[in-house]
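Figure 2 data, in text form.
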Amino acid sequence: MKIIRFDKKDWAAGINALSESYRVFGPAKEKELYNFIELGRGKLPELDFSNTHLSPKAIVFPQSEVMLEYTLDESKKNHHIMKEVDKDYSPRALIGIRPCDAKSLVLVKLNFDTPEHKDPYWLRAYEATTLVGLACDDPAGTCFCTSAGSGPYHEEGLDILLVDSGSHYLAKVITEKGENLLKVAGWETEVDVLSEIESRKSKAEAKITLTIAADKLKNKAILDLYEAPFWEDVAFACINCGTCTYICPTCWCFDIQDEVYKSSGIRMRNWDSCMFPLFTLHTTGHNPRGAKTQRVRQRFMHKLKYFVDKYTSGIMCVGCGRCVRLCPVNIDIRSICDKMNNFEPAG
């Protein structure tokens, strides 16, 4: 276990050194919100934040991504043949990702990297990225990560765990990719301060008082939960705005569309949402989830039951609290999980 300590006075020089070998991404404040952006040379990650408004999943899985291009002009060679668009998969350094968001990428990878199907776009971007996590000493009031398979000092998915230690940063090396990044940055002073990190971890975890109970979900029958009587009440306030899916770090649904202008065309994929009526609309006009109650049920059944049954990684949630904080009608995944976890069919 290697832990590197460096003075905050060396932070800017290290980030600038990284920009010579990596595309550097980090949190930056835009108006009143923090979000991840690609940082130009001389611009530093702004680490004085609780968590970003949106998760950094767009760095690996862009909201809109052109995959293929083609021409319909028959006078040109290879007309009507789709060609893969060149993309920049050079090394990326993602500085300041919270541990919960790093864990979310581990869960999402289960969908994009299977024995049968491997998504080349997602995997190339993911493999090119070195994740430098920022430990969370002051969790937000809506965080419940410790009961959702994550935590303020959780290391899964990270290459480095960065800890703010006053005038210094402590960098716990987790992978070889992380060690290489620290060398490029010029941060190489090794120290034995594991006890300090463990102490900070315990204090941070003790600050999280909100929890989610999911221990019984695996043993529930799918149809019992599907036909449970509480879904109408759960969905009553929902306005199908899709906010929950767009800000969720573990949502992975997308749509593929062709865009054509004159004789030039592209095939692209865009984030989609199971909250939208068009999501399941068939070309016949039939929609198996035409009612909002059906769509709300699908979202929570996927997060809290279908995913649990298919994988052995717990629920499809890392407890970041974004959906709790930002839902305009105050639908709370914790209370719904509690309903599902404790539901017993009549008779």
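Caption note: The chain has a mean pLDDT of 96.
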